[in-house]
Structure formats: structure tokens, C-alpha cells
Amino acid sequence: MNNNPNLETIASSVTPGKMKNVKLVLLGESAVGKSSIVLRFVDRQYVENREPTIGAAFLNQKCNFKDRSIKFEIWDTAGQERFHSLAPMYYRNSQAAIVVYDITKAATLDKAKSWVKELQRQANTDIVIALVGNKLDLVEGEDGEPLEDEEHEREVSKEDAQAYADEAGLLFFETSAKSAQNVDNVFSSIAQKIPLETMHSSNSRNAMSGRNISNNGISLTQPSTQGNLSSCAC
């Protein structure tokens, strides 16, 4: 799974008439890094100390991947409990979902598991779900060795999370929105797994609300040029 190709920003647009829309929703506890993951994917940026998302934010990104051209229509939902009741509005008819937890806080994995159960019960039966443990930079160095940081200790082992993902039929990654590690792989794996016939032809559909960002596009078949930084991926 981790051998999937990364992404690279490109200036060329995708061939008209071949674009497919993929509605994707991000779910998870507040402050696990959902918005930072999306910002890294769409804008290729990381912003420290982001304000919490209110309701949901909408972003989109065009991608080329092998035999398909995709426009990800991304709903980044708020993690606060008071917005939970709004979630079905965003994951309804979604072809994909990314459920995020913080690998330094075990309770956020419990919340992620509850989101997975809800998606499997109420979302599309063929929805592709990726379980993502974020903030890898807090517990591992660039060489992959554990960091000695008493303030940010790993509370969720990769083995336990992987075992749960395998049992539940999920894609699984550990990421760092700060350093960009594995962020692109999450989206490339989703693009690869969604059956082409379940994608919708691109047209001028209006978003319900939120911020709309449209880049020139990215290619999921090119190696990434992103840097590798360290620190908190909040």
C-alpha cells in the first residue's frame, strides 16, 4: 500500500470531457489534523495553529491517475460534537471518506471507529474508507526511528490500527500533514480503489457552502517534490 505513487503539482489541465467527480468527506475528532491534511493535498501548504473548522469547508482538486482524470470534491467537516448531526449531509452519496485520528491520543481512534461504523451503516455500500493516523512527525524522526518526546508519546500503535483497518476493510496510513509524509498516498490509493463506474461525469454542480479552491491539477503518477519537515501536524 505504501508503494503507491505520490503526487506532484502540474500546470496542465485535464482533458475536457473525461473528468470524473469523486465526492470525498473527512471525518474525525476535533484537532486531529483533518484540515491540515486537506490543505497539504490541495494547496501544498501547512499552516500552524489553524482555527477549528465551523460546520464544513469545501475544496476541490483535479488529479490525473493512470486511466482516469478525477476531480476530488472534498468536504472537510468540523470535529466538534455539536456538528455531528450535520455529518450525514456531507457523507451522503460520497464515494470516499477519510477518517482521521491522532496517533498521540488513543481516544481519537475510538471516535474514528465510531465514524467508520456510522459510515458502514448509513453511507453508500461501496464507499471507500481510509483510516488515517495523523501527526506521525511527533513520534518519529525522518529516519523512521522513534523520538524521545515525553510531551508527545505515541498512544496508538501502528500494528493495532493496521489490524483494525484490515478487519474493517479499510485503507490505512499514518501521515504527517506537517512534513507531507504519506498524505498524497492516501488520495492516490483512494483514486485507485474507487471503481470507475461509480464515479460521476464532471459538470457544473454547486457546492452547498464553504470555501472553494480549484488548482490547475495534480498528477498521481509523478513522484512528489514535497519537503520533509518535522514538528506538530495539528
Automatic annotation (TrEMBL):
The keyword Membrane does not apply. It comes from the Eukaryota. Keywords: Nucleotide-binding. InterPro entries: P-loop_NTPase, Small_GTP-bd, Small_GTPase. GO terms for molecular function: GTP binding; GTPase activity. Residues 201-234 are annotated as: Disordered. Pfam families: Ras. NCBIfam families: small_GTP (TIGR00231). This is GTP-binding protein ypt5. It comes from Rhizopus delemar (strain RA 99-880 / ATCC MYA-4621 / FGSC 9543 / NRRL 43880). The lineage of its organism: Eukaryota, Fungi, Fungi incertae sedis, Mucoromycota, Mucoromycotina.
